[in-house]
Amino acid sequence: MKQSIGAKPLAFPTPTWVVGTYDMNGIPNAMTAAWGGICCSNPPCVSVSLRKATYSYAGIIENKAFTVSIPSEKYVKETDYLGITSGRDENKFEGACLTPVRSEVVPAPYVEEFPIVLECKLLHTLEIGLHTLFVGEIIDIKAEESVLDENKNPDIEKIRPIIYDTGSRSYYSIGCNIGKAFSIGREC
């Protein structure tokens, strides 16, 4: 029997993304965000939700762009650091010993050490409550060659992205492949 646990921000899986922006002085900034996902196929878009209180919020509004760097599990400490410090107080790239790279297609930085980056142009904002939903059109995706499969697509088992559990406030790694989408269901 299912038990009610109330309304809370809980869904599985939740990504662990690093959103890159420039601040008002052109300084690279990055923050960890879990409220995000793919939100459209054509044009390809992602959404991320940030609180107005975050330093990155103003950077997205000002520059009309952001990046999403997807960290691998070996960068869990650096990724957490980017979520518990503020760009108002320090240079987060320096503090995490990470390298900012200026995107060639949008006015936003990304994290050199992370294997995948989505470069996004801001399309829409929606005030929801405590958070603002930012919808960004993916203008380009950069991927390390080492995480691509034979068809030049990112391989999740090579990327080893970090998953966030909102309930326990913990990070997890991905599991193994359990079936081919749009195919395994035919076995029912």
Automatic annotation (TrEMBL):
Domain of life: Archaea
Record keyword Coiled coil present: no
Residues of the Flavin reductase like domain: 10-164
InterPro entries: Flavin_Rdtase-like_dom, Flavoredoxin, Split_barrel_FMN-bd
GO molecular function: FMN binding
Keyword annotations from UniProtKB, A to Z: Flavoprotein
Cofactors: FMN
Family of this protein: Belongs to the flavoredoxin family.
Name the UniProt record assigns to this protein: Flavoredoxin Flr
Organism, as annotated: Methanosarcina thermophila
Lineage: Archaea, Methanobacteriati, Methanobacteriota, Stenosarchaea group, Methanomicrobia
